[in-house]
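Office hours follow-up: a student asked to see two folded examples consecutively, so here they are.
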Amino acid sequence: MPRKGMTVGVVAVSRKPVSRWAKRGFVPSAVLPAVPSMPPRTRLGPEGDVETWYLGPASIEFHPGDTGHYRDNLLSGRPSVWVALRAGREPEVHLVTVDPYEGEAIAGDPGLVVEAVPMPEALRLAVTAFFEVHHVEEVFVKRNRTRSDPGGRRPEGSRVLHPDKGK
């Protein structure tokens, strides 16, 4: 199966803890369409109690079997990229995906911080081009159910208990 992908840069914000016992956490805030020439975990700057960090590059793979999911994302009105960071002392990019169902599935993992961030235009164009080349519409065919015992025959000696007749 042909696979295609794109490498993006991940940006996160960190807010000052509310109490002295809390740790500083990181939340994904943006995806850059190109990887900048700075090293990972570079602080971009503070704005009050909020710090912005470049966490590093991440690759996004496009799979031909998921093109229906990509279409749903592109037609949602707000195309998004799901970024998952592994919580810890040093934030680590765990996964970046444009599949909304995969993004929602990993959101339940308690060890990850997952956010849907806006999709950059260059990435949106790449996903659209991949969709147009690889999408095959699957026709829904409803199956007819077959009875397991079409003649109503039961093995010798078996009984049917009726609720109104007792035992």
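And the second, which I mentioned at the end of office hours:
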Amino acid sequence: MALVVLLRGVNVGGHRTFRPTVLAEQLRHLDAVNIGAAGTFVIRKPITQSRLRAEVAQRLPFEAEIVIFKGQELSGLLAHDYFAGEPVRSDIVRFVSVLSGRPRLEPSLPMSFPADGKWMMKVIAREGRFVVGMYRRRMEAVRQFGMLDKLFGVPVTTRNWNTIAAIAKVLGEGDGRG
């Protein structure tokens, strides 16, 4: 059973930087596949989540939030077209945030930020530990991501929908169109 590893807050603005390709090479005994530069990996050989977490943490040059989930958990997410009716636009980014644990809060969805005026971020739905949404490609929108931790009561880490589609492809889950 494949596992997906997401590192939170790495390689962002020169802070907590490392080379994901080097980490993937160090994890080659686990048939690791690196996806992008944000700390996203698919581990294709069997290993427990606790052992994998320890192996990844041991190899990082800093402490990081490590989120791990079973690859098969993406099936439910990919089965829905959360963006139906939403036009594909270069100024709108589709994303998935992954909850680091069981949410302490269960907000009513969908919702937009800010609540009044032109939205910078829309949270469309939650599927298990996955939160699906869109944001405008602007700095004001990026600041809204801190709201997700508060909204669900646990830390989240976010990836672009294209990254989720790349994970799905490595896992053999289709094209991840969404």
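Two things to take away from it. The longest strand covers residues 92-99. The beta strands are 3-8, 32-34, 40-43, 65-70, 92-99, 111-113, 121-127, 130-136, 156-160.
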